[in-house]
Amino acid sequence: MSESEITEILCFPGSRKNYAVDFSCVVEISYDFKISKIPCMPPDFEGVCSYKGAMIPVIRIEEAQETDEGNQSRVIVVIVKHRKYFLGIRLSREPYIISYTDAEKITNPLGVAASERWKEKGLYRFRDKLFSVIDVEKTLEGMVFYP
């Protein structure tokens, strides 16, 4: 699917930053997923979960203390896919969908990336919030280790 055909993004509101992904990359939004912790991993690595028989990594959208505040009863994981690779994104708040036509693309004057982990596709404003749209393809490619 070409970028011009993508019409909606799934937004992840956070306590300090807001993120989003093209809705065409979203495979599933799951609630109350069982995530298994793995020791000695990077701080944003939540763990792994079983998704349709495969173990997939789960990364936090925000830092651990922010994720756990006020949302301890519900685990929300968005499963995204690029080619044969899956990734779970642990959210701190309920996601929602908006249309690209309802959002205004913002030029990032400083060229600042969203974070080291998330590769940014663009910065958009919707109402009074800014959303960093994650480039799922580049983010997943940056996580895959080739022998």
Automatic annotation (TrEMBL):
Ranges of residues in domain CheW-like: 6-145
Pfam families: CheW
Gene3D superfamilies: CheA-289, Domain 4 (2.40.50.180), SH3 Domains (2.30.30.40)
Domain of life: Bacteria
Residue spans crossing the bilayer: none
Entry-linked InterPro entries: CheW-like_dom_sf (IPR036061), CheW-lke_dom (IPR002545)
Record-given protein name: CheW-like domain-containing protein
